[in-house]
Amino acid sequence: MQWQQDILGGDFESHSFAATGSDGVERTATLVRLRPDPDRGAGGDRRGAVLFLHGWSDYFFNVELARFWAGAGYDFYALDMHNHGRSLRPESPGGYVADLTAYDAEIEEAWRIIGGESGPGPLALMGHSTGGLVAALWTSRHPEAVSLLVLNSPWLEMHGSSLVRRAASSMVRPVARIRPQTVLRLPERGHYWRTISSAADGEWPLDERYRPRMAFPVRAGWLRAVLAGHSRVARGLGIEAPVLVLLSKGSANGLLWSEEMRRTDAVLDVNTISARALTLGRTVTLERIDGALHDVFLSPEPIRSDAYSRLARWLRAYG
């Protein structure tokens, strides 16, 4: 297998591959790795490998996160799933998936590749937002593959309650069945992008070829797939691996910009998510981080340092 120099440069490499799902459709995904230090592990500090799954309309770019995991003794990998980031193709709608299980084949192939490099066996799986939902569902279906599950602001439920989800499902289902790629005309908000992008008020250089300011258009089939995932979580996933859920302490989800969005999750209802997290499995640790953004590891430095400290403490207990 040939690794190529990645867009992040330095000691980051990537490899694009095709994986065929259970529906017979071949999809392209891209695995990114922080090139392993050949001298690491000689002192007995190697603890395995971790695979990171990004959120919707997103891609992997957080070099700091990769180096944290490497410093904790893990070989770091990230997957740009099909129709996202490095795996975008002109002929396919960005961000679209009609069933979240369509990601299974590429995650399994990534697991196989990682096993060939880092050694067979379970890995730590980390997911953010919609990637956190995908990671939780995949872990529930592949318990032998995951030793630790870390969820960074996972999208486990709709805003408000399951009643909102049921109402949304009843409205989107007929459209999704007949015309799944229909774009739903929903308000566009760039508030979260504003808080993280160095082109606005944030500190992170985001490549707009891979992550649009306003996110990809919301399509009926995609929303139906996400809502089905939420329903599955609500019934309980029974995950046996230890689970860590990191969330902001507060939410600010208005249509208009407010200064509170600089200190809260401007995407999800964190109180609803924190309650739903208890359905994930038997051993769930919940960390609510004051001042954190939607991606807690993109928060201002003192706040994300707190998040890293909490993650490191949890890894010492369960890693």
Summarize the structure.
With 319 residues, this protein is an alpha/beta fold. 31% of the residues lie in helices and 18% in strands.
Placed side by side, the strands forming the largest sheet appear as 1-2-3-5-4-6-7-8-9
How many beta-strand elements? Answer: 9
Gross geometry? globular
**Oligomer designation:** single chain
Secondary-structure element order, as H and E? EEEEHEHEHEHHHEHEH
Helix content estimate: 25-40%
Question: Total number of helical segments?
Answer: 8
Beta content comes to 15-25%
The largest sheet, given as strand count, sense and whether it forms a barrel, is:
9 strands, mixed
Q: Specify the structural class.
A: alpha/beta
Outline the low-pLDDT stretches: none
Compute the average pLDDT: 92
Q: Provide the gyration radius in Å.
A: 18 Å
First-to-last CA distance: 29 Å
